[in-house]
Amino acid sequence: MAMAMAAARFDAALFSSLLTTRVLGRTLNWFEVSESTMKNASGAVDAACKARRAGTCEGTDPVSALHGTVFLAERQTAGVGRRGRGWESPTGNLYVSFVWCASEYLGPAAGQPVDPGALMQHMTQLNIAMALAVVAACQPYGLACKVKWPNDVWLDQRKLSGMLINLVEPTTAVAGIGIDVNQEMVGQQGLRAISIADAVGQPVGREAVLAAFCNDLEKRMDLPFRMVLQTYEENDMLRGHQVRVHHGSREVAHPSDYDAEVTGFSSKGELLVRNKQTGAIKPLVGEEISLTMLQL
């Protein structure tokens, strides 16, 4: 099992002092131990939705009031990754979820329907902006990370971060991210992962990493989608590589699985691949498939 380098308890005051955001991270819910920060955040949204329906809150909409609220745990006992996969959560890393209300950007009143296409693009932007924010947060340490579609960040051919987004209310999402900050991973048998501390050779302050992530993410969500997508493409590690496209679990073969070459991205942020057998180029959606790189 990977071990954690010595790391101090998260300093909320220090984190707050490093923020330049308007909203993201300004409210922090800290847990020594949590089953899952995704569960904590989703529970808060559920309670706010009940309060909205009951009409017990005057003034600010209770769901909108949660926008940008961060939930952080020193350790998780049942962390969840993409497609419900388990997430090992020892101390020393960042295990964070936050509430994101698309209505704050898309205009309709809280709780009201939005254009499905606009909502999809906004959530796609959130997903790719989160990955880019991790890349930016690692740059002060001299690390040149790359994004791996649909929701990973890698360094030196090893995974450093993963993220997911769950839409829990028509215009509100809970986004979760794990960043390996102080866990000793390189050299551990069976692990293709790395932490920031592995790369720099000493423990790293998690407060600065998370603040840099929040600061960068909020700025990118103010930018046009095409600009964020262009930056994502510039930091992509898959273009030109051979991949196996899985329609189910990576561990279980599916009749529809096939080998392909990654050619780029569509204007909607879909990954474009060329089927090695048919030559057809197809757009892929992250919620539907998974990829295995056949060459690095």
Give a verbal description of the structure:
It is a single chain. The radius of gyration is 19 Å and the shape is globular. The chain has seven helices and 16 strands. 28% of the residues lie in helices and 28% in strands. It has 296 residues and is α+β, with helices and mostly antiparallel strands.
Short description:
This protein has 296 residues and is α+β, with helices and mostly antiparallel strands. It has helices at residues 12-18, 37-54, 103-106, 116-138, 196-200, 206-220, 225-234; strands at 3-4, 28-34, 70-76, 79-80, 86-87, 94-101, 146-148, 152-155, 158-169, 172-179, 183-184, 242-246, 258-265, 271-275, 281-284, 290-293.
3D shape = globular
Low-confidence stretches: none
Q: Tell me the fraction of residues in β-strands, as a range.
A: 25-35%
What is the averaged pLDDT score? 90
Structural class assignment? alpha+beta
| Structure annotation, total helices | 7
- Structural Rg: 19 Å
From the N-terminal CA to the C-terminal CA, the straight-line distance is 25 Å
Helix content: 25-40%
Query: What does the largest sheet look like?
Result: 7 strands, mixed
Spatial strand order of the main sheet:
2-3-6-10-9-8-7
Secondary-structure element series: EHEHEEEEHHEEEEEHHHEEEEE
The total count of strands amounts to 16
Oligomer: single chain
